[in-house]
Structures are given as structure tokens and as C-alpha cells.
Design goal:
Number of domains of chain A: 2
Oligomer: heterodimer
Helix content of chain A: 55-70%
Strand content of chain B: 25-35%
CATH architecture of the largest domain in chain B: 3-Layer(aba) Sandwich
CATH class of the largest domain in chain A: Mainly Alpha
Structural class of chain A: mainly alpha
Shape of chain B: elongated
Mean pLDDT of chain B: 88
Order of helices and strands of chain B: EEEHEEEEHHHEHEHEEHHEEEEEEEEEE
Number of helices of chain A: 24
Largest sheet of chain A: none
Shape of chain A: globular
Distance between the termini of chain A: 53 Å
Structural class of chain B: alpha+beta
Largest sheet of chain B: 6 strands, mixed
Order of helices and strands of chain A: HHHHHHHHHHHHHHHHHHHHHHHH
Largest interface: A-B, 31 and 43 residues
Radius of gyration of chain B: 25 Å
Low-confidence stretches of chain A: 1-7, 297-302
Number of domains of chain B: 2
CATH superfamily of the largest domain in chain A: MetI-like
Distance between the termini of chain B: 47 Å
Chain lengths: 575, 374
């Protein structure tokens, strides 16, 4: 029979004092605040100061803004940036919605394979996509020359705003596709059945019920893509450079690196203008997300959406999608690979005549190239691990503690969404100049790692917080009642259960950080080169071959980590 | 001595007062149930004792230790209260197997490995899960999970045991078995227990005493027998078991301290044994349990028998296995009656036994009792 429980003595607990927990929580919140605000405040301050922050005796004035807005070049920049962003958004969202509906909801052949291929560009750096397109479709590109030989005229001009919008859309279309297809996949088929039952045909149902129900993801991804288009650096640098078209980002880049004495005040003012616009757009995104509750079509009952029958037209649509994927993604990538292994790439002679390993040899013989690879990998690995762990702690404090300022912390953690990468870069440049104790990490890869981490704080938060929300609060409650402190509960229960989300976050961080170059522009020094920026700099110098080879290496590293993540950890890369 | 004292406990969420100054006392080794409909504040009260919800006012003391005292701002964090708690969803940690779930509280207490194994072994015997100790929660049935949760709450010899609807996720058959098993274990360990449920049968079967709660306050505390037989107000009569309610007025005192109530629905008056007294013409509500109502075919009894016999018509009847449930009409009021044999007649006499009724002032009972829903 059972021994009498009451004879068992109670064992006293020795627990950390509540003060120790507060210390942890305040440290995490304080560090987050410092990380997020230290790039923001210097940018704002420098825009109102009449001389660089390191020069003494400055006065606050609106002089920088006056100069910025009276600069005719800046007017052109604003006009070009917005026409590009609008056009890129329309193309990306249009294609994304089309793909989401066709692949998600019709009987087009090879749906699951198409669904996979459509997403590929999301893993590629927009910079690499731009290189690939130039190699294939620029006025001197392989494909363009081929077409010229066939038709006698140059049928397109890539170095134009529509051309740039098209290239940008290749990178951004998968975003619209992801949002729209996840909503299309969970839509309640009863809503469509209702339309069918009152006599609407399939096409009419699609147009009057299915598409309007997708309005929230369409709008949300449109605003998101528009925001990304406003701050994209690769497109104006690679495609606008040859013909002198500048966007916000390349304007900042040229003002900073172009002149002998950079006009820091002007850069600050332009950065603040961009910051204000992007912050407004992020606020719009948030209100759209709240609004979307009106369109909730997911019910507890599990159901599969209906598949619209396309009949014989499905082959035509299939051919169209294949053609798009071939022209937009596959051919440019093949061009990039060919360029990486040839001296020249021209349709006038077969490429094997120019085959060479020289481009690869060049990369491994220049220390700057080699360093950019090792630096990028070190930053992506360490930055990925550290950011993931830090964000996990932030999420635990913000969502699973009685910390007094947890709401503020929650806001701080996702605020960098409103900070374009270049602004994070400029801000950390100033922060590292001005905060003397941080001097030693200036111009090192650790400064870059911190900047990259801040830039992708919200991405990691987005990978971890939803899973945390799915862990019932009673799991913490149970641990607390059996005697675990908040800290013990956090690491022994919650962090262990968050493991899949932590792996996802790490893989995401790695992919983003190995691609990142925008915020490195202002922080890189000899010795701390990263892949993306090195490619950009060598590209501007006309070193196409080695850049193609380096791009290829970046793609291979990214694909490897994506593969590892998916096979080993069953990671969902996009959340 | 680990008795539980709760005084003037108060808790609000925004504008909603969840717990409105409630006080109760649980003796050492006693099994007290907080019973009430959802939203009555019973779980908030329990979480207050466990320390998982910080109350806005009042005092909570277990034995010599004050857990919470709003007067001095004293609040003991949950991990220092040494309460054992079983959650409605069991809250087993999914990344730990049964053994590890039980070991975690002991590891926190730095119990040496040997003693840890002994204690876990004893608890596994107690909850009959020796065979399943290497399984993970998702590999267990609902009943087994519930037993692991109980084992985990007991393994570190907590001062008190707190149970939050632990049986509500089990199917009916299993729940009945778990009930008697739980009662057995609690009696064996003699641990002071607070049990939260909305299931009145559970409360009646398990409890030494029941506290019936409604809208943040305790309406009646008593043994199951007291609560069932002498409900303090119509809500309690309605919530515990099933009751018929008949409206009437105080007609006057009757013999032996009984009173006479003139029913609204008929001309008739009935005599009720009660120790309450009312002024003449006070609006009253009389409650009577369906199983206490007796039904007789009127054609077999031509004359009115002695006692509270009323004329009624049978509306319909259903067979539920253990008895027949009939709906009867007395004037404009419907009355439920449970009988062993089916009543085939249309016109019947029904009896409302004088000492099986409870009587309340009607104006205190405006809400909470639905007389027409039969």
C-alpha cells in the first residue's frame, strides 16, 4: 500500500530573490532600448545640426532641410523613387495575387512544384538578382544582344524606371504571393459555395467573392512592398547608376561616399525624411492588420478550399507561369552562373570558348574578397545565434512576465521595422563615433553584427513571439506553483519548448545577415568587409566576372543553410 | 496547521468585479469546493490562493504563513507558496516525460537523487502510472494525463492542494471513476484541498463542504446535504440539482411553525414547514425538487387526499432510464416531476410534500431563476 505522504518532510526551497529577476528584466529592456534608440537619436540630431556631430560648437537649425528641399536633384530623386515604388508595387502584387490564385486555387499542372519555385527569389539577395538581370537583359546583356540579332532592334531598355521596377518585382513578388496564398489556403469554402449556389459561375465567384476576401493580404503586402521599394539600394546602384537615375537610398549613398567631404547634415535630413515616410507606412500596415479582423474567414472547422477547374486553359496558364519563371528567375541565374565561369559572355560565340576558373581564382587571391566571405559567415552565424537568443529573452520578458514596462519593450522590439537599413547604418555610425566606450568595436565586424541584429530584431521577434503565444500560460503557472522562479520557468520550460521557433529564427537571421549590405555601407572599413557590399563596390568598378562568382558563392551558402534548416530542423523559413 | 483563511478577497479586471469581498475558511484536511457557473469568480479565487493572480484587496493565509495581505502590501510569489495545483488543461510540460514532469519540482528543491526516486516511485504507485513513467504527455490518455498532473502536484508534499476543474476534460464514464479515486486519495493523504468546479454532481460527491458562488460572491457555504436540502436562496436551489419554482403569497401561519402559502397559479394554498417567518401577503417563491413531487391518477382517487395536493394536467413525459420525467401544468405554471412508473392519465393529483420544500422571499430572487424553462 502507499506510504503515508504526510510522513514525508517538506523540503524548503532556496530561490533567487525577486530583485535578481528584476535585474534581468530591466537589463534586457534597457539593452533593447539602447540598441533601438542609439541609431535613431543621432540621425535625428544630426539632421538639425549645422555641422557634423563630432565638430564642437554646432547650432540647431532647419538649414539642412532647407538645403535638401531646395536641391533640384533631390526633387528628381523623390519623383523617381515614388514612380519606381508605385510601379514595382503594382507589378509585384499583381503577379503575386495571380500566382496565389492560380497555384493555390486552380487545377493548374504541377501545382506543388510551382509553389516551391515561385518562392525561390526570396532566398536571393536583391543585389544578386539585379546582377543576374544586368548580365542577361541590360543593353549589353546576353539576352538583349540575342534579341537584337534576331529582331534587328533592341526590344527593351533595362536601365529605365519600368525596367528597374520589373527587376525589383522579381525579388518582391514572393512576398505578395506568400501573404495572399496563406489567406487563400485557409479561406472558408462555404463562402464560395454560397455564391455558386445562387448561380454565380466559377470565374464570377473568383472575381466577386474570392478576390475581395483576399483584400487584406493584398493591401497589407502592397504597403509592405511599397515600403521595401522605397528603401531598396541594389536597384538604383546597379541599374540606375549607368544612366544617372537615383533613388532615396542611392542619393544617401552618393552624398555620403561621393564627395571628398560628405555633407552629413544633408544626409541626416534626407534620412529623417525617409524615416518619417517609412514610419507612416508601418503605422498604415499595423492598422491594416487590425482592420483585417473584419475579413476573418477561418473557422475552427477544418476544411479544404475548393479547386477551380480551368479545363483545357490550364495548360495555357501553366505555360505562362513557366515562361515567367524561366525569363524572370531561371535564365538570369543561368546567366550569372555562366558569367562566373567565363571571361566574356556573348551570344556571338559559344560560351565554352571562354570558359575559365579565373573569376574564382581572383576571389581567393584578393584578401578583401576572402575576408568579405569569412566576415559575412561569421556575422551571420554569431549574429544569428545572439540575436535569436536575445530576442527570445525579450519576448519572454515582454509577453511572459509581470515586468512593469513590458508593453514598451514589446513596442521597442518591433520598432526597427520602421527603420530602413541605411538609416540603421548611419545611426550606428554616429553612435559608435560618439559613444567613446564603444570605440574599440568601431570599424570591426562586431559593430556590423550589432547593427544587423537591430535591423532584424523584428524579424526574429516575428519568428518567436507567435510560437510563444501558442504555449498556454498554464505551463508557466504550473511551473511557478511547483516552485520555479520566473527565470527558471523561462529557461527550463519556455525556452525548451520554443526550440523549433529558435531554429527558425536562427535560419532566418542567417539568410538575412549574409545578404545584408545596405546598413553596412556606413560601417564598413578595410578589414570588416561583407559580401554584399564588396560585390557592389567591385561591380561599380566593372569587375563583373568576380562579382558573378562571389554572388554564386553567396547563393550556394544560402541554399545550403536553407536546405540544412528544412531537412534537419524542419524549419519553416517564412512565417 | 495548514488551514486556509481567505478574508475580504477582492479582484477586478477593468470594470468587472471578478471577486467581490469574499471570505471563507478551510480546515486542516478539509475538502472545500468552490462551485458556481462560469464567470462567478471561483477560478480567480483559486488563482489568488496559488499566487498566480494578484488580488486587489483582502487577506490570504495558509497555516501560519500570510500569502497576501493588501493592508501591508505583502505578496508571496507563487513559487514560494508550496501549493500543489492541478490545472484544467493539466499543463503537463510536453517536452518532459512523466518521470521528468514529477522530478522537476524535486530538482528545484535540490532533493538528493535517491530520495527523489523514492518519492516519485511512491507517487507513481499512488496515481497508478508506474508503467507509463517514460511516456510523454501526448502519448497518454486524458485520464492518465490527469493523474500525472495530480501526481506532480503531490510529489513535493505541498501544504495545500488546489484543483481547477481537473475532471472537466474527461468523458462521463471516466469522470465518475476519477471522482471516487480523487476522493480516496485526498482522504488518504488528509491534505487540505480547494476544488473548483461548475459541475454540481462533482461538488456533491467530493466535498466536505461546498461554497456556492455567483457573480463574485459566496451565496452559501455548507455540507452537500445542507446545500441540497436547505438551499439558502433560489439561485442555490436552481443551481444544485433541479428545482421547480412556484410563485405565491404568505397566507398566514399554520400549525407547528409551518406557514401557509397561497399559490398564484391556482386558488389553492399549500402548507410548508420552515423556520423562516414572513409578513402576511409577502410575495414568496417556493422551490421543490422534481423527485419529491408525487403524482397520482385523479380517476383512481376521486376525493382530494390530505396534504398539499393540487390538480394538474400531464403535458408530456419522457423516459430517461432511471425514471420518467413528466411535465405537468398547474394553472399557468409548469411543474417537473420524476416518477418511477409512467403516468398515463391526463388528469392527476400532484403532491408537494410540506417538508421537501424551500421558501424564499420573491423579490430577492428576481434573477438567476428561470421558472419557465422546463
Amino acid at each position: 500500500m502507499v506510504a503515508n505522504e504526510r510522513t514525508r518532510p517538506r523540503v524548503p526551497l532556496r530561490l533567487p530573490t525577486v530583485r535578481a529577476e528584476h535585474l534581468i528584466q530591466y537589463s534586457i529592456a534597457g539593452l533593447t532600448a539602447v540598441l533601438v534608440l542609439s541609431p535613431l537619436l543621432p540621425v535625428l540630431y544630426s539632421s538639425f545640426r549645422d555641422r557634423p556631430l563630432y565638430d564642437a560648437g554646432g547650432v540647431l537649425s532647419l538649414g539642412n532641410y532647407v538645403r535638401l528641399f531646395s536641391d533640384p536633384a533631390f526633387h528628381r530623386v523623390i519623383g523617381d523613387t515614388f514612380s519606381f515604388a508605385v510601379l514595382a508595387t503594382i507589378i509585384s502584387v499583381g503577379l503575386g495575387v495571380l500566382m496565389a490564385v492560380v497555384i493555390g486555387r486552380t487545377d493548374v499542372p504541377a501545382r506543388s512544384i510551382l509553389a516551391e519555385i515561385v518562392l525561390w527569389p526570396i532566398y536571393l539577395s536583391p543585389l544578386v538578382v539585379a546582377f543576374a538581370w544586368v548580365i542577361m537583359y541590360s543593353p549589353a546583356g546576353f539576352g538583349t544582344l540575342l534579341a537584337k540579332n534576331l529582331f534587328g532592334i533592341q526590344p527593351w531598355n533595362l536601365y529605365s524606371i519600368p525596367g528597374m521596377a520589373l527587376v525589383a518585382s522579381v525579388s518582391m513578388m514572393p512576398i505578395a504571393y506568400l501573404y495572399c496564398s496563406s489567406s487563400a489556403a485557409v479561406a472558408d469554402p462555404a463562402l464560395e459555395d454560397a455564391a455558386r449556389s445562387i448561380g454565380a459561375g466559377p470565374l464570377r465567384t473568383l472575381l466577386t467573392v474570392t478576390l475581395p476576401l483576399m483584400r487584406p493580404p493584398i493591401l497589407y503586402s502592397a504597403v509592405l512592398i511599397f515600403t521595401i521599394a522605397l528603401e531598396i539600394l541594389s536597384i538604383p546602384m546597379v541599374l540606375g547608376g549607368p544612366v544617372g537615375i537615383n533613388f532615396f537610398s542611392s542619393y544617401l549613398y552618393n552624398q555620403w561616399l561621393g564627395g571628398a567631404r560628405p555633407d552629413y547634415g544633408l544626409v541626416g535630413a534626407a534620412a529623417v525624411v525617409l524615416l518619417v515616410i517609412v514610419t507612416a507606412l508601418v503605422l498604415v500596415q499595423n492598422s491594416l492588420l487590425r482592420e483585417s479582423a473584419r475579413f476573418v474567414t477561418v473557422r475552427g472547422k477544418a476544411s479544404r478550399p475548393h479547386i477551380f477547374k480551368l479545363g483545357r486553359q490550364r495548360w495555357i496558364i501553366f505555360a505562362f507561369i513557366c515562361l515567367y519563371l524561366l525569363l524572370a528567375a531561371i535564365l538570369p541565374m543561368i546567366g550569372l552562373i555562366m558569367r562566373a565561369f567565363t571571361k566574356f559572355l556573348t551570344p556571338l560565340a559559344p560560351p565554352w570558348q571562354f570558359l575559365t576558373l579565373n573569376n574564382m581564382k581572383v576571389i581567393f587571391s584578393y584578401p578583401a574578397y576572402v575576408r568579405s566571405i569569412t566576415n559575412s559567415i561569421v556575422i551571420a552565424l554569431i549574429g544569428g545565434v545572439v540575436t535569436t537568443l536575445f530576442v527570445a529573452l525579450v519576448a519572454l520578458v515582454a509577453h511572459r512576465s509581470e515586468f512593469r514596462f513590458r508593453r514598451v519593450l514589446d513596442f521597442l522590439a518591433i520598432y526597427p521595422r520602421a527603420m530602413p537599413g541605411m538609416i540603421v547604418g548611419i545611426g550606428f555610425f554616429w553612435a559608435l563615433v560618439m559613444l567613446k566606450p564603444l570605440g574599440p568595436i568601431r570599424n570591426t565586424i562586431w559593430g556590423l553584427t550589432i547593427a544587423f541584429s537591430v535591423r532584424y530584431l523584428p524579424t526574429a521577434f516575428g519568428a518567436i513571439a507567435p510560437m510563444l503565444a501558442r504555449l498556454g500560460a498554464e505551463l508557466d503557472d504550473a511551473a511557478r506553483t511547483v516552485g520555479a522562479s520566473w527565470w527558471t520557468t523561462s529557461w527550463a520550460i519556455l525556452l525548451k519548448l520554443l526550440k523549433p521557433a529558435l531554429f527558425s529564427s536562427f535560419i532566418l537571421m542567417f539568410i538575412q545577415m549574409i545578404k545584408e549590405y545596405g546598413c553596412a555601407v556606413f560601417l564598413v572599413a578595410p578589414g570588416s568587409e561583407v559580401m554584399g557590399l564588396t560585390m557592389l563596390q567591385f561591380w561599380v568598378q566593372g569587375e563583373t566576372g568576380p562579382v558573378a562568382a562571389l554572388s554564386l558563392l553567396q547563393v550556394v551558402i544560402t541554399m545550403a543553410i536553407v536546405y540544412v534548416g528544412r531537412k534537419l530542423f524542419k524549419v519553416r523559413i517564412y512565417a | 496547521m495548514p488551514e486556509i483563511v481567505v478574508q475580504n478577497l477582492y479582484k477586478r479586471f477593468g470594470d468587472v468585479v471578478a471577486v467581490d469581498h469574499i471570505s471563507f475558511f478551510v480546515q486542516d484536511g478539509e475538502f472545500l469546493t468552490l462551485l458556481g457557473p462560469s464567470g462567478c469568480g471561483k477560478t480567480t479565487t483559486l488563482f489568488g490562493v496559488a499566487g498566480l493572480d494578484r488580488p486587489d484587496g483582502g487577506l490570504i493565509r495558509v497555516g501560519e504563513v500570510t500569502f497576501f495581505d493588501s493592508a501591508s502590501g505583502h505578496f508571496v510569489v507563487p513559487e514560494k507558496r508550496n501549493c500543489g495545483m492541478v490545472f484544467q488543461s493539466y499543463a503537463l510540460w510536453p517536452h518532459m516525460n512523466v518521470y521528468e514532469n514529477l522530478a522537476f519540482p524535486l530538482k528545484l528543491r535540490k532533493v538528493p537523487k535517491k530520495e527523489r526516486e523514492e518519492r516519485i516511485g511512491e507517487i507513481l504507485d499512488l496515481v497508478e502510472l508506474q508503467v507509463q513513467k517514460d511516456r510523454y504527455p501526448h502519448q497518454l490518455s486524458g485520464g492518465q494525463q490527469q493523474r500525472v498532473a495530480l501526481g506532480r502536484a503531490l510529489v513535493y508534499s505541498p501544504t495545500v492542494l488546489l484543483l481547477d476543474e481537473p475532471l472537466s476534460n474527461l468523458d462521463a464514464k471516466l469522470r465518475e471513476r476519477a471522482r471516487s479515486w480523487l476522493k480516496h486519495i485526498q482522504a488518504q493523504l488528509g491534505i487540505t484541498t480547494v476544488y473548483v468546479t461548475h459541475d454540481q454532481t462533482e461538488a456533491l460527491v467530493l466535498s466536505d463542504r461546498i461554497a456556492v458562488m455567483r457573480e463574485g460572491s459566496i451565496r452559501q457555504v455548507g455540507t452537500p446535504q445542507e446545500i441540497y436540502a436547505r438551499p439558502a436562496e433560489p439561485f442555490v436551489a436552481d443551481f444544485i440539482g433541479t428545482s421547480n419554482f412556484l410563485r405565491g403569497h404568505m397566507a398566514g401561519p399554520s400549525a407547528n411553525g409551518a406557514i401557509s402559502v397561497r399559490l398564484e397559479t391556482t386558488e389553492a394554498s399549500i402548507v410548508i414547514n420552515t423556520d423562516k417567518s414572513f409578513a402576511r401577503e409577502t410575495p414568496l417563491l417556493v422551490s421543490v425538487r422534481p423527485e419529491k413531487v408525487r403524482v397520482v391518477d385523479r380517476s383512481s382517487e376521486a376525493t382530494v387526499p390530505e396534504g398539499n395536493w393540487l390538480e394538474a394536467e400531464v403535458v408530456d413525459g419522457i423516459y430517461v432510464g432511471s425514471c420518467y420525467r413528466h411535465r405537468l401544468r398547474i394553472g399557468q405554471t409548469l411543474l417537473r416531476a420524476e416518477t418511477e412508473a409512467e403516468v398515463c392519465a391526463k388528469s392527476v393529483w400532484v403532491s408537494i410534500p410540506s417538508d421537501a420544500c424551500a421558501v424564499f422571499e420573491a423579490n430577492t430572487a428576481q434573477d438567476g431563476v428561470d421558472e419557465t424553462a422546463i
